Automatic annotation (TrEMBL):
Domain of life: Archaea
Region: Disordered, residue numbers: 100-132
Name this polypeptide is given: Zinc finger CHY domain protein
GO MF entry, a single one: zinc ion binding
Keywords: Metal-binding, Zinc, Zinc-finger
Record-annotated CHY-type domain positions: 29-104
SUPFAM superfamilies: CHY zinc finger-like (SSF161219)
Pfam family, one: zf-CHY
Organismal lineage: Archaea, Methanobacteriati, Methanobacteriota, Stenosarchaea group, Halobacteria
Biased composition (Polar residues): 108-120
Organism: Halorubrum kocurii JCM 14978
Amino acid sequence: MATRPTDDRRTTTAPATDDRFAVPLRGVAVDPETRCAHWDSAVDVVALRFDCCEAYYPCAACHDAATDHEAAPWPRDRFDEPAVLCGVCGATLTAREYLDGDGEAQRASGSEGQSPSGNRASPGDSRAKPDDACPRCDAAFNPGCRAHRDRYFEA
Ligand SMILES: [Zn+2]
Ligand SMILES: [Zn+2]
Ligand SMILES: [Zn+2]
């Protein structure tokens, strides 16, 4: 199997961790920016930490492939601890920082009573940055991740 240097894919299973990353991380066919066998687009550059084993994985399927226990999402009482790795710059974000990026926190804090009018997109929302991006390096994160955030973060 030929391995191109620009496409360095490694599969790491517990208890080993991938030594390319500063944090304990494992998964299936993981590239240097934490894309994996399951999520492989340009924006799939986030790894999530799991409470059950304290390690980071590119996705829940990677967790299940690399370990023999059930995944436990990151608990709410640890949302101020690092729980998300940006595969582009290597920064770790707290769960709160990461989830703030998708607008949940802004909605939760303050404007609870104001719901957006109807279901039209608001033209007033003119943030320059994409909703899901690394606050450190501005790398775009997959906005689809929010659809299954309950797998990764305690609701
Ligand atoms: Zn685990
Ligand atoms: Zn995966
Ligand atoms: Zn980053």
